[in-house]
TrEMBL record:
Entry GO CC: membrane
UniProt subcellular location: Membrane
Xref: PANTHER family: SOLUTE CARRIER FAMILY 22 MEMBER
Membrane-protein topology: Multi-pass membrane protein
Organism: Glossina austeni
The protein's name in its UniProt record: Major facilitator superfamily (MFS) profile domain-containing protein
GO molecular function: transmembrane transporter activity
Length: 240
């Protein structure tokens, strides 16, 4: 007796299958949250160099500068005609009261690199980018963290696929959920970049362990002509 013959006798999509299908669809929502979390965890802020006369320990520093200070402190982009600090430098001058009251910047001393930064908090209050100053020469760290998360998704699809074939769907599925929850919490509270990135790598792997294994569970428990349409619906649900 084949797999489809069993479903013909028991029913293709009965009450039990509907309950299990609904529950495993809920787990795809968790995977979606983890995959979309990088948009907010690594949110990019506008920023500028902290100027020498500003106190780095003060909470009263504003991103927007008053008066003519921006013109006196930062180079002007000749293409956009805007003052920017994305080149991560500011004019190397003595920012005395006399200098800040003049009209034109002093250019003979060249520019100096930023040591501290002021971030625009109008859209996002903070993120991993502001936590570890992943801007200027450290901007690659944000891209690396995001890339390692997706590498985890790739590795997880291979590892958890093999584990589910060897040890069964349910043990692999529940193990993936536990690991995902543990390292998801760790990534949220971690204060150090490398541990955070490693945690995100593991979480990326477990999203494959959860999503792909539950997809196979959904496919194997359904029979008849409903199986293809329900599995396409499951994939669409995860994508949404």
């Amino acid at each position: 007796m084949s797999h489809d013959d069993v479903f013909m006798r028991l029913g293709d999509f009965g009450k039990y299958q509907k309950i299990i299908y609904f529950l495993i669809c809920l787990t795809s929502i968790i995977c979606a949250f983890h995959k979309l979390a990088g948009v907010f965890l690594l949110a990019k802020h506008d920023y500028r160099c902290l100027l020498p006369f500003e106190d780095p320990n003060s909470n009263a520093i504003e991103y927007e500068l008053k008066g003519n200070i921006k013109h006196l402190a930062y180079p002007k982009d000749t293409l956009s005609d805007k003052y920017v600090s994305y080149n991560c430098r500011y004019y190397n001058v003595d920012y005395s009261e006399k200098y800040l009251n003049q009209s034109e910047p002093f250019l003979r001393n060249g520019r100096r690199p930023c040591e501290h930064y002021v971030y625009d908090e109008s859209k996002y209050l903070n993120s991993a980018v502001t936590e570890w100053n992943m801007v200027c020469g450290r901007s690659f760290m944000a891209a690396a963290s995001d890339a390692l998360f997706m590498s985890g998704v790739l590795v997880g699809s291979i590892v958890f696929g093999q584990l589910s074939d060897k040890y069964g769907r349910q043990p692999t599925f529940f193990s993936s959920l536990v690991i995902q929850m543990t390292f998801g919490i760790l990534a949220g509270i971690e204060q150090e970049y490398f541990t955070y990135t490693a945690s995100r790598f593991v979480v990326g792997g477990t999203t494959s362990g959860v999503f792909l294994v539950t997809y196979v569970i959904a496919m194997e428990m359904e029979g008849g002509i409903l199986a293809p349409s329900l599995n396409i619906e499951y994939i669409d649900h995860g994508a949404i």
